[in-house]
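Residues determine shape. Take a concrete instance:
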Amino acid sequence: MPSPHRTREIAQYEARHTTVKAMTASGALTAADSGKVIALNITGGDVALTLPAAQVGLTYRIMVWKSDTGDDNVTIATAAASSLFKGGVVHLDITADENSLNVEADFSNDDLVTLVDPRNGTFVELFCDGTHWYLTGRVVSDTVPTIA
């Protein structure tokens, strides 16, 4: 049995440790996935994620990657139409003009986020207050994402 000091060290290490969940297909995230980094490989095509029912404290960081240049999209939906997205993401345009744009939820029926052809470097963070989902992140793409 470790000493009390060692037990505290172990607990502090575990609190800083991030678990990664790899996904390559559409599916539902669960409350047990909260706090994990979702490594989302979209090389095989479009991926649709559904968040669990709103619950205080749920958090997810979704990181998108792919090894091809295909037009693959990511959609993230809330479990209930009454649970809306609040906040927004920064869109980094990879076309020749290299513009950036802030894409914000308008707080009206915003229960679906669509990342159109996201590239490596895209990430979205989601935090739940028990009713709604707060959204932030960076979307690297040549097409502006939508929140609807």
User: Anything to note?
Assistant: DSSP finds one helix and twelve strands in the chain.
